[in-house]
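So, can you check?
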Amino acid sequence: MLSEYKRLAPWFKKYLPMYIAGVICLLLTDAGLLYVPRLTREAVDIIAAGSPDLHLILRISVIMVVISLFVVIGRFGWRFFITGSARRIESGLRGLLFEHILKLQPGFFEERKTGDIMARFTNDMRAIRMACGMAIVSLIDGVFMAAFILVILFIDYPSLAGWIIIPLPVLAVLVLGMGRLLGKRTKRVQEGFAALSSIVQETFAGIRVFKTMSREQYAVEKFSESNDEYIRRTLSLVRIWGLFFPLINFLAGCTTLLLLWFGGLQVMDGKMSPGDFAAVLSYLNLLVWPMMGAGFTINWLERGAASLSRIGELLDVEPEIKSGDAQTDDGIPVAPVGDIDFRDLNFSWSEGTDAVLEGISFSIPRGAAVGIFGRTGSGKSCLVNLLPRLYDPPPQTIFIGGRDIRTYDLQTLRKSVGLVQQESFLFSETIKENISFTAGDAADERIMEAAEFSTIARDLKEFPFGWDTMVGERGHSLSGGQKQRIAVSRAYLTDPEILIFDDCLSAVDAETESKILRQFIEKRKGRTSIIISNRTSSLSAADFIIVLENGRISAKGPHERLIKESGLYRSIYRLQQVEHERR
């Protein structure tokens, strides 16, 4: 269990002074609490004497008030230093996890459920915070209080202490035994919560599908099944806790019972004063917290260890796509500029699976506008996703400027290769903020130019607040065509060396798409443009077109030549021409 906490060693080292200050405040607080029973003993003995001295009682009361204020300050201190450090560790670990996940390849997110990842950022982080904060407090507090109380009892009341601590060894065995059971059940509860979170996230993300397909009942049943499983796992843990704390209270009650019997006899025999009896009772009440704290400590440490293990699973995932180190003599990353060459490219999603792309070889001169055409599943999107290394191509298969793209600095490469994908993703911000996402400092004139380029500017008057209109989550308040045109404006504003349109205007009518793409090619003269479309009319302005069939190049050439040669391109062209004439 404790081996999992090695991951936090850098943070523990960083915040060690704060932890030390917190422990000092905690120990001073405990010292004040340990002194109170002595004052209680003195006060009770004065009262029991039959002629109480009011001045002595007042003095003791004032001392108690001062100690109480001292304890209040001490408790604030350990909360500020220890709990504050735990919060900072939680924040640091969450930031580290977030940065690490951003470095992982898209395939990672295809294999993991978003809800499970979110659960590690929330529920698991909270468990780690409690382990780094309250677990340390209860551990140190429990050990210190228990040790000093036992020392005081054996020094001041040796004949009585031996009897009243009889239940403590039983408590130690109970704590150790229960700790093992708690650890296993805690991890199962956290996994159950992650599964439940995944279902909730997927349901809300696909709420329109559930409603249009009238599958709300299915969603309810699926949620109920996962929720019931989570409850079963939670109740399994609660049963242990339900047995654990009553047993601790029972053992604490046994110590009080032993005190009443043996301590009462000593008071009646005159071997112990009423004040001593009251003091011992106070010490036993103080001893209950360390006994309870032992259970809390084990629970928090077990939960923290289980959560660290789950977070460690993500942190241990190595990014499959490594950044290159190509630099100039001045140490500046080399910018990918020049012709694009595909050399006998073969690619499959994983080892042992069928190839998605086979024997792909062609060149794109710098500044050319190239169209890529093919049926659904022919490998078009896969091909262009390899250029910014969203997926990693084999070595020596794709070159820009005569250099293998795997040697370029990854961030430099991706800044130079803009990609507007088929599914346009918009953030829950305004239209203006979505367009300027990659160029936040862009002038309004430049943003409007990008909006006019994609023709989204003509729709601005329809929105209640113009381009300051919030688009909602994933742009749900916009039509498909509007979302695509905003995404196009966003890409246009970045103006990268290589810009790829991956069938990103499919929701726009053919006439508007053709207009945008022709304007796109015209404005980007001198820089490379790649256009994927299933409409042959949209590719007619390209310098040349690559036709893909089943992951292979079946034809290549300008639009005018391809419509004359027999093959897939001419067949689709004629079908689309007939459809256009019917309209």
User: Anything to note?
Assistant: The two ends are 71 Å apart (CA to CA). The domain at 2-315 is CATH 1.20.1560.10 (ABC transporter transmembrane region fold).
